[in-house]
Amino acid sequence: MKTFTATPADIEKKWIVIDAEGVVLGRLASIVAMRLRGKHKPTFTPHMDMGDNVIVINADKVQLTGRKREKPNYWHTGHPGGIKSRTTGEILEGAHPERVVMQAVKRMLPGNRLSRQQMTHLRVFAGAEHGMDAQQPESIDVKSMNKKNTRTA
Amino acid sequence: MSRTKGGTVTHRRHKKVLDAAKGYYDRRSRTFKVARQAVDKANQYATRDRKNRKRNFRALWIQRINAAVRSFDESLTYSRFMGGLAKAGIEVDRKVLADLAVHEPEAFNAIAAKARDALA
Description:
Chain B: GO terms for molecular function: rRNA binding; structural constituent of ribosome. The complex is a heterodimer of chains A (153) and B (120). Chain A is an alpha/beta fold and 153 residues long. Chain A has a domain at 14-66 and 96-139: CATH 3.90.1180.10. Chain A contains 4 helices and 6 strands. In chain A, the strands form 2 sheets. In chain A, strands 5-2-1-6 form a 4-stranded parallel sheet, with helices on one face. Chain A has a two-stranded antiparallel ribbon with strand order 3-4. Chain B has one domain (8-119): Orthogonal Bundle (c-terminal domain of poly(a) binding protein), CATH 1.10.1900. Chain B has helices at 7-20, 32-72, 78-88, 94-103, 105-119. The longest helix of chain B is centred in the middle third of the chain and has 41 residues, at 32-72. Classes of the chains: A alpha/beta (153), B mainly alpha (120). Chain A binds chain B through residues 1, 3-4, 39-44, 46, 145, and chain B through 57, 60-61, 63-65, 67-68, 70-71, 74, 95-96, 98-99, 101-103, 105, 108.
């Protein structure tokens, strides 16, 4: 008996939409990352791009526990003295709040070429609209999966 | 008695190594000295990875069983499922379980139901 290996013909990529409002960031990202990689499927094949396409809405309303809103994120501009920082809260209130969810998911994926390809199947939107109704995405309720998913403290 | 020269023997020995190094990069496929090192290392990796292959496949089966178990019942995980199987006295190995999960989902779900009942 030979272990099953998925070929492109076996792969069916679904579209799913997740409402991030009030959901704890890391718990959301772990579910999204699992879906993107396809680890929820019994046919999971590590070298194949077989995950779902994931749409996240209300990404600016994710829940952060503890003092993580005040946690600074640093980057360097390349100029002397060019170290800058912005807290996660500032990013969420800034021009690109969806980057918080993007980065959380990216860092939960393995650091290889396949995961960069899988990241292109993730669409994150700050508002409640995703404008991707043509894909007929199936809604997934992360809030009701586990009571810890909406923890506030 | 005439003198025996080693040329043909050396040539055969070298050819064996260089043939094994076909397709290697640069001097690794052309120069005997470098090709010998490359082939020796390749054989070491091959020996090691024949053993690793068994672990890698077992890990993959476990990941697949976990996915199938969780989609069958949200409260069931791989670990609890295997515990349930042991209690129910079902001795199907992971390779077969993973294959059932892919090709015979109904059969797999029947086993999963028995494992769940054994836990309760």
